[in-house]
UniProtKB/TrEMBL annotation:
Its cofactor is NADP(+). The keyword Lyase applies. InterPro entries: GDP_Man_deHydtase, NAD(P)-bd_dom, NAD(P)-bd_dom_sf. This is GDP-mannose 4,6-dehydratase. The keyword Membrane does not apply. SUPFAM superfamilies: NAD(P)-binding Rossmann-fold domains.
Length: 339
């Protein structure tokens, strides 16, 4: 067993896949919890499955759901991780209004179950909870930092606020190395297609390729602090390498609107977004977070962490990826048809 052994929930997600790569590069043995589902397609980790020197040698997957603490406890006891990264949960804010009970059970109580399991271990691992800027909801101050009062305005934000506060309580009451990474929006080519950044990058690529004509969106003036997911998981890892446990806001400190997102993405493929975007009120949230802008100063000074790409570079990276994927798919289909 490696001297550093990590266990990751949500390993098949955007953050989990980037974190897995980072830990493997740093010599870790990596274990991941995955939900048993009707599909075995886990595209973000596909390249690691195919590597015989990694899969089932340094990377191991275990079936477990967040509502199954017995199985999680068994895995933790067997693996004995030195670091535990809790990234799993229902992470779509808009969807949380439709499924508030399951959001809270998974995101709030699921986190508490894990902390109870870890507290019982002979040598509790260092624990990172991936919190969210949604805990601030409608903030009273801008930008927000680690001392900003929580004020969630969505079921997801409320569930994350509970998990965040409990992580802090376990750190202070039980003396555990438990941390909150309060993440602002972080995107990448691996972002799910139901998130607005990926909707936009994919639409720009598809419209350029002639595969679709329009894109329906809600409030174009909604502003977000968007960063690169690969940068954020690096900060998460740095948090667990410190001498003292603490909470950190992970953000760029810069805000952009969906309108700017559209402009950057469509400009990159020489299109005018105004020719293709349709405003649809169905995509507007019942209550939207406003003035959400993170202050990453503590991460800058304590972790020596800085984002590696700016907003425009991130959007262009995502659009390029989607354009290349569409081109590769078309080439493969043409090859199959000719053969």
């Amino acid at each position: 067993m490696s001297s550093n052994t990590a266990l990751i929930t949500g390993i098949t997600g955007q953050d989990g896949s980037y974190l897995t790569e980072l830990l493997l590069e740093n010599g870790y043995e990596v274990h991941g919890l995955v939900r048993r589902s009707s599909t075995m397609e886990r595209s973000r980790l596909k390249h690691l499955y195919a590597d015989e020197s990694v899969y089932n040698k340094r990377l191991f997957l275990h079936y477990a759901d967040l509502d199954d603490p017995t199985t999680i406890r068994r895995i933790v006891t067997r693996v004995q991780p030195t670091e535990f990264y809790h990234l799993a949960g229902q992470s779509h804010v808009g969807l949380s209004f439709d499924i508030p009970e399951s959001t809270c059970d998974t995101t709030a109580i699921g986190t508490l179950r894990i902390m109870e399991i870890l507290r019982d271990q002979p040598q509790p691992p260092r624990f990172l909870h991936a919190s969210s800027r949604e805990i601030f909801g409608t903030p009273t101050v801008s930008p927000q930092d680690e001392s900003t009062p929580v004020n969630p305005n969505s079921p997801y934000g409320c569930a994350k606020a509970f998990a965040t506060q409990m992580t802090k309580i376990y750190r202070e009451a039980h003396g555990l190395f438990f941390c909150n990474a309060i993440c602002y929006n972080h995107e990448s080519p691996r972002r799910g297609e139901n998130f607005v950044t990926r909707k936009v990058s994919l639409a720009a690529a598809k419209i350029k390729a002639g595969l679709q004509n329009n894109l329906s969106l809600g409030d174009l003036d909604a502003a977000r602090d968007w960063g690169y997911a690969k940068d954020y998981v690096r900060a998460m890892w740095l948090m667990l390498q410190q001498d003292t446990a603490g909470d950190f806001v992970l953000a760029t400190g810069k805000s952009h609107t969906i309108r700017q997102l559209l402009q950057t993405a469509f400009d990159h493929v020489d299109l005018n977004w105004q020719d293709h975007v349709i405003i649809d009120d169905r995509f507007k949230r019942p209550a939207d977070a406003c003035q959400l802008l993170g202050d990453p100063e503590k991460a800058h000074t304590t972790l020596n962490w800085q984002p590696s790409v700016n907003f425009a570079e991130l959007v262009q990276l995502m659009v390029d990826h989607d354009c290349q994927a569409i081109h590769a798919s078309a080439t493969a289909k043409a090859g199959a048809a000719s053969s």
